[in-house]
Specification:
The chain is an alpha+beta fold. The protein has two domains: about 120 residues, Elongation Factor Tu (Ef-tu), domain 3, CATH 2.40.30; about 55 residues, Membrane-bound Lytic Murein Transglycosylase D, Chain A. The chain contains four helices and eleven strands, in the order E-E-E-E-E-E-H-E-E-E-H-E-H-H-E. It has a seven-stranded antiparallel sheet. The two termini are about 20 Å apart.
């Protein structure tokens, strides 16, 4: 099981040490009304609050095969700088857990840093991610064009296959472009299948079955 944070057209951070657990918090929306003689009363509302995902781990200063997922571990200070950059950023990133169905857009909303005595160079952290929901806002001009009989381009309703078998001459970019409609999503494809592909995304072999991102 591998944990990835992936910025589209940007950095990819693979956690060197897997979290012991991940916490998912999901809450229903309520509208609270203060009624005389009764006090506060909750009325269920449509929808739910934004889901929060929280986990903790650490960036070791040195590789240790007993708990590190791979040998080329990132520099702890550089990795924490990337988490801080994502926390400050207004763009969502992908949170992917290889071998599971977890692959979603999130915003890094908070992170804490802890340095422990007796462990020089190691940096412990806790990260909170909030699920990202994209809202499309239509302009007045778009609404007027639709109302006047001009039909917008029909969205591509072709379903994305759950798996794809690599063919001779394929590349991750070409597969992402053909199957997902966006070649830049090859990083997600690689992150989901790194245990199959190996460390070199440019080397894929015909007949290999890849898991496709949603």
């Amino acid at each position: 099981m591998d944990f990835y944070l992936v910025e589209q057209d940007g950095p990819v951070l693979r956690l060197p040490v897997n979290p012991a657990e991940i916490s998912f918090q999901r809450e229903k929306l309520f509208e609270t009304v203060n009624i005389m003689s009764l006090g506060e009363v909750d009325f269920p509302s449509n929808g739910e609050k934004v889901q929060e995902t929280t986990f903790s781990s650490f960036f070791p200063a040195e590789y240790d095969a007993s708990y590190c997922q791979f040998s080329s571990i990132p520099d702890p200070e550089e990795a924490m700088a990337q988490l801080e950059a994502w926390t400050k950023s207004q763009k969502p990133i992908h949170f992917i857990v290889g071998g599971t169905k977890i692959n979603k857009l999130v915003m890094a909303s908070a992170h804490t840093l802890t340095i422990k005595g007796g462990e020089p160079g190691d940096i412990y952290f806790e990260l909170t991610l909030r699920s990202w929901r994209e809202i499309k806002v239509r302009t007045v001009a778009e609404l007027q064009r639709t109302a006047s009989g001009i039909i917008a381009n029909r969205p591509d309703l072709k379903p994305v296959p759950k798996t794809y078998t690599v063919k001779l001459g394929d590349s991750l970019f070409a597969i992402a472009k053909m199957q997902l409609g966006d070649g830049s999503r090859w990083k997600e494809l690689f992150a989901l299948n790194s245990s199959i592909i190996g460390k070199k995304p440019e080397l894929i072999y015909a007949g290999t079955k890849l898991v496709m991102p949603a």
